[in-house]
Amino acid sequence: MISYILSKIPMGLTALLSMLAFVLTGCLDPDTALGYFGNSNGIMMVSMFVVAAGFNRTQFVKKCASSVNKISRGSLTMMMFGYVLITVILSQFIQSSVVVFGIMAPMMIASCEELNISPSKTLFPLAMIGIATISVLPLGSGATQFAELNGYLEANEYTAFTVALTDPMKARLPMLIAISLYCIFLAPKFAPNAPVVQTGSIEARKDSKAALPALLLCIVSVGWIMTIFPMF
Predict the structure, then answer these.
(1) Are 184 and 81 in contact (CB under 8 A)?
(2) Does pLDDT of 221 surpass 80?
């Protein structure tokens, strides 16, 4: 966590060192640690980023972003209100925050570019609202939550109480309101003015090339240690 905050070494190197620490301390066996490289969630996230990048090159994204900016009249708060509202609605029908983020992120970036606002001020709140509001309202996938909970109660032979359609919403609605207000009014103020990793700049590419030997060394070290670890 300290390394992520300080950003003195590349994030990829920090992640690999963390995984290496789990293996050396016995928290994870080598096969399990290496298995995460082929995790379906990671592959889906990478695929969605590719789709989002292609989606961002279409005129549809630019037109939607321009429409949002006209309605918001250049106000960051109003723009966030619009995108948060759309994200909350999408999150009720799509049970994947990654997919929701992949749909909304290109439009958010286009809006920020048109208003000359750094996307790093808005993308984290957008991701947060997508994660926190999945199936909160009794719409789409959220309409099946009560049946799933009743199934758990019946499986444990507890039939004195039955979950109603709106009961999950009653419990989660305060969280939905609190997270939405935070993402609209406060999160953009605390978000960084520039992205941690400048993926689109030439300087960042030079930095990534400079950090490549260290990253390769870490990968080789992880593979070497995982190979000899079973011997101990």
Answers:
(1) yes
(2) no
